[in-house]
Design brief:
The complex is a heterodimer of chains A (about 425) and B (about 725). By secondary structure, chain A is of the alpha/beta class. Helices cover about 40% and strands about 20% of the residues of chain A. With about 725 residues, chain B is mainly alpha-helical. Chain B has 28 helices and eight strands. In chain B, the strands form four sheets. A two-stranded antiparallel sheet of chain B has the order 1-2. In chain B, strands 3-8 form a two-stranded antiparallel sheet. In chain B, strands 4-5 form a two-stranded antiparallel ribbon. In chain B, helix 1 packs parallel to helix 5. Classes of the chains: A alpha/beta (about 425), B mainly alpha (about 725). Chains A and B meet through helix 1, strand 1, helix 2, helix 3 and helix 4 of A and helix 1, helix 5, helix 13, strand 6 and strand 7 of B.
């Protein structure tokens, strides 16, 4: 289901409209015509005025993801400020922020407002997968470059389109490092505890498929799930406890508040000392902050997309700049926001144009230096080849928020699934 | 084995206890004061935040202190809320409390973010109630036991107060029959503040207990408010016993029986697929109980005072001719809007905002048909919106891209469901009707998320593969609703077979203006709305409409005249359901995707607000309501108002004051909530009543010459 970007796109229509209007087919009597009878490619966004580029920032500033939106926005703002002051870029960004809230409807309205009212040819943002997927559609239809923040595999998989470039590390990449490390270090008998929605399902699916490939003796010894908004985990904890002898590890497919609540209640039952808990997002600072001491009660591991302490690429400079600006260390969402803006800027600079179509062509397959070192947006799905880590949450030297200790790193090329396995038709 | 059973029972009791604390406060508030308090969940969250404020400086031990202090503070806030916002509404229908407390939800939740920030935090606990202890050969969580013991003590205390004090006696009597208490010479109104405060304090206790186990985060209360309402209704409104037993019963059923698929003895389970219905059981239970016992398990048999439903335009400033003129003018103006798109108006204003307003206008119109004309307050109207969106989306994705076919199928499904839901729901009345419809809507919301999983590898998979000719491989990738993500990227063809158009494939050239794609869609939606308006108006002007209005005014009298109100209400419900389904279809067409948000109960709340905002019982009121609702949201988010205010203050030399005005663009809910609260307090009959309110201040020559109000029918529609 890639975006419908067929011959009837909006831009052609508007160009046709302009052309027709100019010909003076006036008069009040309307006439109806087909929109593909004009082949000319009008001015579009390309060409002369290259000084400023309109960038739309779409984040869930209100609602449950507000805290994450702030983090992302900090990263975006920092990147925009740096780019606007830098001599490396021949243009300046003009930005406008829009609140996507938590619903796809509001997300689409925000995106349209950015594109149509404010003339943004480039948009970035969104954290929830359903909002990002709906903006994907808009970006494809309206032909603007979009750099989403959600981790759902299908954004650069079955729902991909040629205008979407993702710097966020997706669930498939995280699952790769988790499974390799688990088979080597914990074993292959797994109990799954899944948040019952797209994200949790995809964690189970990705981990399960890889475990089957990695180990002949792999076995799913138990499965429990909780609703997305679940607040109570006592009964699933009881079921997990029944399985601690048979299972080598507990894989938790959850994020945000759901994961925090699960970890807090698991700590109440001392689960981490009965079975290693392997999470996909347990190293996020928002999760560690929310879980407090429960974030490192027993053995809690996490597939890790980013921690500020990594020594790759120009990460150190980024962390310093971020700390100077905001008095706190950046987290995963800040770096995604930061690099998403830099991705767009690099594309524009390399293309020498602010026409989204030209920039899109330039970005596809482009390699650039990032906080992770050199990263490529693969031509086949336009997903960034980010490296991934396995990490453990450990007791902090002071305070109650867990520290993250990196255990192993998997290079980007090894973590990303093969092109023929992602289901994107680019 | 014993420890496993004890553990399972503990799991259920911990949740049950929280439900009981939350629901008992809610139930007593409703029973005594007839207030549907949606803000109860926010008070619950406030309890957790005030506890955080106490615990943070003091550490774990502060937790005990917090259990005392935070409920007192929240109780105090409850008293203030009752005094200043709830009290003026006592004579009115509980409907107005929905709008009021909905506004309070927006205000409190944004204030929490302003004060404590959006990040989740944890609440530390004393050592004594942290970790596990060993007993009966197993190891159990100390905090779980604490929750149960503490919850029981509080509940027992409240029960004792209600049963053994004069105060309790009056409150209980008030819950059964307020009028009788008043007739006995007791000023029950004086007790209201205390009841509201005590209910809020109970909510706060529940909030602290929950926060101690998990996290403190904005929106903590929203996860609990719906189950709490369901339990209140299950137990019977106003019944403390019902709320406590209902809460514990639901907790145990959900956590000790259904989730672990109890009794999980090898080879035998109660119902094999039961855990797959996890989120739905509570609603199925409520619907079942209400169908058998329309007043809940322990509800009193006394008639509730429903209070006055303030219908919008009982007196109109305009003559019929002027109204007609105004109506035609408005439609004309709406029809001209797209011509200004891109020049006078920003493109997204017409193509997105206005389209959204028109669709919601239709949705609000459909709700008003039963709410304003038949007096049925449905909290589950989103069911039909969801049905329309999803049926259209599924047909467009899987079968044909013909919009006409999709709309026809959706309308057929919507009508059938409306009949069944109407049949089961109309037998209960008032708040019970609101809750049973909410139950159906929530069932549907769960269904759209779960059904794909059921088909791909759940119980439906087992059932379907038993059908000859269906093999497993066919079902594994089957997508009916797209689960929690929804359906994306279907295209729409306006026509049947080969005859028709793709909207993005044609353009209408009107001189310098070109209408394409979404501007054409705008016209389609506008015509559907205008068409629906006239159909509904025709129905209301027919004898059928007269009977409906009669039911709203006095159901018994209508019955005496020989009409069966149930039949009329059911028919009205089906008609309303059809138009709501149509709104859902339009919404799927306007965004080429459908997501579970299309069936979220919040939409039901929002549409009620629009109807009340615009004016109940008038057909154009809901349209105005939708316009104002989204318009306000847009204006506040845009920041124009506050920017200009700041600019103005700076201009007159008050830049210091200007700087103190916070950036409201991100806290627009706070402003919107405040508007709702002020609105319900000062303009209860809706925006359509504004002209009549202004009438006394008009110079004589502008006043319409017409009969005195006494000779007017008491409840006019807009006709």
């Amino acid at each position: 289901m890639s975006g419908e970007t067929g011959q009837y796109d909006r831009r052609t229509v508007l160009q046709a409209a302009g052309a027709t209007g100019a010909l003076g087919v006036a008069g009040l009597a309307g006439c109806i015509g087909s929109t593909d009878d004009d082949g000319g490619d009008g001015g579009g966004n390309g060409g002369a005025d290259f000084d400023t580029v309109q960038l739309g920032i779409l984040e869930p500033f209100t609602g449950d993801f507000a805290a994450l939106a702030e983090e992302r926005n900090n990263g975006e703002t920092l990147a925009v400020d740096e780019i606007n002051q830098s001599d490396e870029f021949d243009f300046e960004f003009e930005t406008e922020e829009y609140d996507t809230q938590l619903s796809p409807e509001d997300g689409v309205q925000a995106a349209q407002s950015a594109i149509q009212d404010d003339g943004a040819g480039f948009i970035t943002g969104a954290i929830s997968s359903s909002v990002a997927l709906s903006i994907n559609e808009v970006a494809g239809n309206q032909e603007v470059v979009y750099t989403p923040g959600a981790a759902d595999v299908s954004i650069t998989g079955s729902n991909c389109n040629e205008y979407v470039f993702r710097f966020e590390t997706n669930t498939a990449q995280i699952a790769e490092v988790m499974t390799q490390w688990m088979v080597d270090n914990l074993g292959d008998k797994i109990h799954y505890q899944i948040a019952d929605y797209a994200y949790g399902d995809s964690v189970r699916e990705e981990v399960d498929r890889r475990m089957q490939n990695l180990s002949d003796s792999y076995e799913e010894v138990g499965f429990t799930s909780s609703a997305q908004g679940a607040t109570n985990f006592e009964s699933v904890l009881t079921q997990i406890e029944d399985n601690v002898d048979a299972a080598d590890a507990l894989v938790v497919g959850a994020t945000g508040g759901h994961l925090i609540r699960f970890l807090a209640q698991a700590a109440g039952r001392d689960l981490g000392n009965q079975i290693p808990i392997v999470t996909t997002t347990g190293s996020f600072s928002v999760v560690r902050g929310g879980a407090g001491t429960a974030g490192y009660n027993g053995e809690i591991y996490s597939g890790t997309r980013y921690v500020p302490g990594i020594e790759t690429g120009d990460n150190r400079a980024f962390v310093e700049a971020y700390q100077n600006e905001y008095d706190s260390a950046p987290d995963n969402f800040s770096r995604v926001g930061y690099e998403s803006v830099y991705t767009i800027a690099t594309g524009i600079q390399e293309a020498g144009s602010r026409d989204p179509t030209v920039v899109r062509e330039t970005l596809s397959g482009l390699s650039r230096e990032t906080i992770f070192g050199e990263v490529t947006f693969r031509e086949c799905d336009q997903q960034a080849t980010n490296p991934v880590w396995m990490a453990q949450n450990v007791a902090p030297d002071q305070g109650e928020v867990a520290d993250v200790e990196l255990l192993t790193k998997l290079e980007g090329e090894e973590a990303i699934p093969a092109c023929d396995a992602v289901g994107c038709g680019l | 084995m014993v420890e496993a059973l004890v553990q399972q029972l503990l799991d259920g009791l911990t949740v049950g206890m929280v439900y009981a604390l939350l629901a008992s406060g809610l139930s007593v508030i409703f029973g005594v004061m007839n207030v549907i308090n949606f803000a109860h969940g926010e008070l619950f969250g406030l309890g957790a935040y005030f506890a955080l404020a106490v615990v943070s400086p003091l550490g774990g031990v502060g937790f005990y202190l917090a259990l005392l202090v935070a409920p007192l503070i929240v109780g105090g806030i409850g008293v203030l809320i009752e005094r200043f916002t709830v009290r003026p509404l006592y004579d009115r229908n509980p409907l107005y409390h929905i709008l009021l407390t909905f506004g309070l939800v927006l205000i409190i939740s944004d204030l929490v973010i302003l004060v404590w920030g959006p990040e989740p935090t944890s609440l530390s606990r004393p050592e004594f109630i942290t970790g596990t202890f060993d007993a009966l050969g197993g190891s159990f969580s100390r905090y779980a036991v604490f929750m149960i013991v503490f919850g029981s003590i509080v509940t027992a205390g409240v029960w004792a107060v209600l049963n053994y004090t004069r105060y309790g006696l009056i409150v209980r009597a008030g819950a059964q029959d307020r009028r009788m208490v008043r007739n006995l010479g007791i000023d029950i109104d004086q007790y209201y503040s205390l009841v509201f405060g005590a209910g809020a304090a109970l909510a706060a206790v529940a909030g602290i207990v929950i926060a101690g186990r998990g996290q403190v985060t904005p929106g903590l209360g929203s996860a609990f408010i719906i189950p709490a309402f369901v339990i209140v209704v299950l137990g019977g409104l106003g019944s403390f016993k019902g709320a406590v037993l209902g809460g514990i019963g639901v907790g145990v059923l959900q956590e000790s029986v259904i989730k672990p698929d109890f009794p999980a003895i090898d080879g035998f389970t109660l119902v094999p697929a039961l855990p797959q219905f996890d989120g739905m059981i509570i609603f199925i239970l409520m619907i079942g109980v209400l169908v058998l016992r329309p007043r809940g398990l322990f509800g009193s048999e006394f008639n509730e005072e429903s209070g006055q439903l303030l219908v919008g335009a009982d007196r109109s400033l305009l003559t019929d001719r002027q109204r007609q003129f105004l109506g035609v003018g408005t439609v004309g103006l709406l029809a001209l809007l797209p011509l200004a798109s891109g020049s006078l108006l920003e493109p997204s204003t017409v193509e997105f905002l206005m389209i959204r307003i028109l669709i919601w206008g239709l949705f609000a119109l459909s709700l008003d048909f039963i709410m304003g004309y038949a007096g049925l307050v449905s909290l589950g109207h989103v069911l039909f919106w969801g049905l329309g969106s999803y049926t259209a989306g599924t047909v467009l994705t899987n079968a044909t891209e013909s919009v006409l076919v999709a709309a026809a199928v959706a309308l057929a499904v919507g009508t059938a469901v409306a009949y069944v839901v109407g049949y089961l729901s109309i037998r209960v009345s008032g708040v019970y009707f609101a809750m049973i419809t909410l139950g159906f809507a929530e069932l549907y919301h769960n269904l759209v998320i779960d059904i794909d999983g059921w088909i791909q590898d759940g119980w439906l998979h087992t059932v379907l593969t038993a059908v000859p000719g269906v093999d497993s491989a066919m079902l594994v990738d089957f997508e009916l609703t797209g689960g929690s993500e929804g359906l994306f990227g279907f295209s729409t063809f306006y026509g049947v077979g080969d005859i028709g158009v793709h909207l993005d494939g044609i353009a209408v050239y009107l001189g310098p203006v070109t209408l394409t794609d979404r501007l054409l869609l705008y016209y389609i939606i506008l015509s559907v709305l205008v068409g629906s308006f006239f159909i509904l108006r025709r129905i209301l002007n027919a004898p059928f409409g007269a009977v409906l209005k009669g039911i709203r005014e006095n159901e018994t009298r209508v019955q005496f005249l020989g009409y069966d109100p149930t039949v009329y209400k059911r028919r009205a419900f089906v008609i309303s359901g059809m138009f709501a389904t149509l709104a859902g279809v339009l919404s799927a067409l306007s965004n080429p995707f459908v997501s579970p948000g299309a069936a979220e109960w919040l939409k039901s709340g929002e549409v009620i607000i629009m109807v009340v905002l615009g004016g109940l019982g008038t057909l154009f009121g809901p349209l105005i309501g939708a316009f104002v609702f989204f318009g306000l949201e847009e204006i506040i988010q845009d920041g124009v108002v506050f920017d200009s205010l700041r600019g103005l203050l700076t201009l007159v030399g008050l830049s210091g004051v200007a700087d103190t005005i916070p950036d409201f663009t991100r806290r627009w809910r706070l402003v919107l909530g405040t508007v709702f609260v002020l609105f319900v307090l000062f303009l209860p009959s809706g925006l359509v009543s504004v002209p009549a309110k202004l009438e006394p201040y008009l110079p004589d020559r502008f006043r319409p010459t017409r009969a005195t109000p006494a000779e007017q029918p008491t409840a006019r529609g807009d006709d």
